[in-house]
Amino acid sequence: MNCLRCHTPLPLLVINTDTFEPCPTCGAKVRADLFPAALAVQKGPETGAPVIEDGSSECFYHPGKKAVAPCGSCGRFLCSLCDVDLSGEHICFSCLESGKKKKKRVDLENHRTLYDGIALNLAILPLLFFWVTLITAPLALYVAIRYYKAPTSIIPRTRFRFIVAGFFSVCQIVAWGFGLYALAT
Amino acid sequence: MKKKQKLYTKLPGVTHKNFGKHTLWQGKDHLLLMYSNGMSEDYKRFYYKDILGIVITKTRKAAVTFSIILGLFLLTSFFSWKIWSHDQEPASAFLGIIAFVFLAFLLSLIIKGPSCECRIITAVQNEKLPAVSLIRHARKLMTILKPIILEAQGAMAPDDVANAMDTLVETQRAIEPDRHPKSGGSAPELTDNAKPRKLFHFAMFSSLVLYGIMVGLSLPQRTMLLVSVTYIFLFIAGLSSAGALTVHAKSRFAPSLKKIAWAGLIFVMIAFVQSYGEIMVFFFIKTAQGKPPLSQMDMFQHYYSLRPLDFSVVKVADCLKIFVAAVIGIPGLFLLTGSRN
Whole-model pTM? Predict the structure, then answer.
């Protein structure tokens, strides 16, 4: 555990004090918190227990290894090596992989496209250069309708942006309609 | 209608960067670091049971920003007041507005308080938490986060802290061998790639010294040649400072050299802003007199035909520039030639 300014290791005196203490080397105020997991790292990785008794269940992926839990998704028996604990659920690697690919599991996602934000930006930002709205307004309306049911942010958020984007784009389309009609007549 | 389950709760800390913002969220069994730019989001998760430690260090970023803004505020206020006394109200009002903007920045910096850097350590990561950049956010965050992590991992006896530290050092050594040498806390031997390249620093400090000399030569009477050469040196100093900062990120330098390089960069920025301000003040004076400059060349012509000794404000500003360029450039060159790295 190092000071982030001088990168020298911090002494035990400044660790887990719950306050900012000066670093003995550079004097920068440092707060360092160490957690019990640091002790657990010493144990090393699990290797999967061997089958001890004849009648006991074995791992689907590692025959000969004792099963410790069934996969919460596919039901296959898993040894301690194959068992992935995800939000308190036991999952096997193949279900984990398919869950990530199909975006079924929120806790495996590391990127999301915010279509509500795209629609809103398409509806509002081009107003600075109004002639661009001839193209962007229908586009914003399309995005707002097409992706209305698509998942938005991972954090709590309403679909208000879609509604605002739709409203603004409809207004722009109507304005363009009137403008073009006036020009034509 | 079934109410949607709330997956995350907002935690203190937000940093705006690259047209987006970094935020922290508390999940059921993990901490979520999110970068959002309004059109997409990127997530990083840190499971409570995997977090080995959190380190927060107070940084000088807020203090340095405050000093720069304060300098700019004083400079613009001073020029505004000086011009006002010469009956140049429009120009004075323009500078007054700029000074007010700087004042607003200063107040916001005072409210925000000191800055910090926060890193989270797991068995395989040592990640910066960009969302936590202020001490007050860090304090609030730790008050919320620490009980949650301890609840997930269980309590630790005070005697175990030393054992845990040993484990952590080994873990860190595996993640970042460069920063964690095996022989205690001494600096590791630098490889050829990590050896500091001093060319940028040398260019920066020497061009600052030459810039100071050129400003000194221009004091009695500026000429086009003198002004052009002066700004070529300032431009080189600016470019090389950018290079020096890039090199800083990749290799190890003496802390004093780093500080002085930062000071050089800040000085270059202030010198550019001051020169631009001088040209703008001329523009407003001429406009107020009903003789607006016809082109940028006119404004530049006025700038290089000036006799700084005849104008107290310009004289003071130029003397300050000579002084600061010497104070940064000369010790910088000495440090550079004296350092073994």
Answer: 0.63
Residue with tokens 């089958």: A51
Cβ–Cβ of A36/B56 closer than 8 Å?
no
ipTM score here?
0.78
Q: Which amino acid is at B174?
A: A
Exposed e or buried b for every residue in A22-51, given b needs 16+ CB within 10 A?
ebebeebbbbbbbbbbbbbbeeeeeebeeb
The per-residue pLDDT for range A85-97, each reduced to its tens digit, is: 777 778 888 888 8
- Kindly report each contact of residues A18-22 with a partner whose C-beta sits within 8 Å and lies 24 or more positions away, as own/partner: A18/B142, A18/B146, A20/B56, A20/B58, A20/B135
Of B107, B118, B114, which Cα lies nearest the Cα of B136? B114
Please report residues of B whose CB lies closer than 8 A to that of A107: 27, 30, 45
Inter-chain touch A5–B57, beta carbons under 8 Å: yes
Confidence band (pLDDT; 50, 70, 90) for A163? very high
Alpha-carbon dihedral sign for residues A10, A15, A18, A21: negative
pLDDT digits (tens, 9 = 90+) for B57-77: 998 888 888 988 898 898 888
Q: Is B49 on the interface with A (CB under 8 A)?
A: yes
Do the Cβ atoms of B34 and A32 come within 8 Å? no
User: Which residue type, as a one-letter code, is found at position B165?
Assistant: M
CB A61 within 8 A of CB A96: no
